[in-house]
Amino acid sequence: MMIGMMVIGMKKDRQWRIRLNYFRQRYGLIISLMIAILISIFLSVQLWQTPGHVSQKRQITNTQQEEAIGKNLGNVYSLSKLTFNGKSQNLSVLDYQTVSSKLISRVKGWHLKYKGDQKLSKNAYLQSLSKNNMIVMSFSDSVSGSVIKNVFGKDIKIANNVMIDHVRLPQGGTNVVLYNDAHHKIYHYQGTDVVQTIKKVKSSERAVSVDYRWIGEHVVTAPIGRIQLQTHSYLLDSDDTMSQLLKIFPDGGKRTVANDQEILTYTNGDNQRMTRNMTTGIINYDAYGINDHVDQVGQRQRQGYQWLVDLHQLTDDLYYFEETNNAKSLMYRLFVNGLPVFNQTDNGTVQVKQKPNQHEQIILSQYSLRVPLPTDNKSKVTLPTMDEEINKLMAAGVDKTDIQKILLGYRWRLNPENQIVTLEPTWYFEQDNVWRSVDSWLADKGGQ
């Protein structure tokens, strides 16, 4: 009986091998071709998603990619002002990054339950924002609800395209309020599941007394007295932006000279073009045939961040500065000690512009700031108050209603002999969507 079972088993084994050989002969070639095709498709997709093929639709919500870069979307669209509202005065923190990071970290652990919204008069809106015993965190310009979710937690209930300018936190309690300057609208949230409160988070010693006021369509914090700020110096850095970008373009560039400026133009098929101004260091990168279907504010701000990733612009000191035309134009600037850096030739900036017919243009610079040089107290500058600067502008013929914004910033001055950039603190104002330093504008006006 045992022998019979062994014979049956051997017959079955032989039949199985015969069937396997038959299957291989009939279908083996087809299966091999299918595997080869799948591998080819996979490799093509990986190649198409490299910076050399940025016209392909990109995944701009990949958290793992953000974490791998080290500076995620929430960091780029970070806060630019932090104010502690007190009974006798409001203190705006100069070195706010450390304190604001601690606040965000704690609030991000809360569950924020939506309690409703209100549309207020401009005066009531200002009073709500300046309420006592509150901490107000302000963005450089309006950010979308999509960005707010990234900063404060993805479970917060807010539409992706709602624009927010300020976040008010209680020094005691868990009521959080979001503010939209354009429509004087506020959004109320109640923090629950609170692990850590923010009651013991204190202001920094480096703070100035301010009040809240409307300038144009935005609420700003205006220093009440004159303020002293440090001048800084840096070595000029011609970073590796070009070496990264040139990997996209196989040609060596076509050289032209116009208006005493040397221009190199690179192309990669019909979808990509780059011009490099060898005189100023400004780079214009154009991508055509973009099929990302980005047509909302929240999407555009995420898209802007993705361009910073693709073009290797995520530096430690580059942050979101402003948006215009429903975020069809986005500006990112270098910030030093919490203040934006301005330059006549756009060094230290990245502009992302969404143009018609699936065309996007990114304007950036190959020059940045590298090594900070030692400074001393002798290089401090005492600046006038905001009111003093506005009065000077009005006396020179500027209508106050034409001033869109006014803020403190650093002016970039380059010494070409030693390649040292000096950053001088001064007041800047925006008129007709153009930023100018107050003193330079007044000097030009006086020379006319």
From TrEMBL:
InterPro entries from the UniProt entry: YycH
Residues annotated as transmembrane: 27-48
Keyword annotations from UniProtKB, A to Z: Membrane, Transmembrane, Transmembrane helix
Pfam families: YycH
Domain Regulatory protein YycH: from-to ranges: 33-444
Superkingdom of source: Bacteria
Protein name: Two-component signal transduction system YycFG, regulatory protein YycH
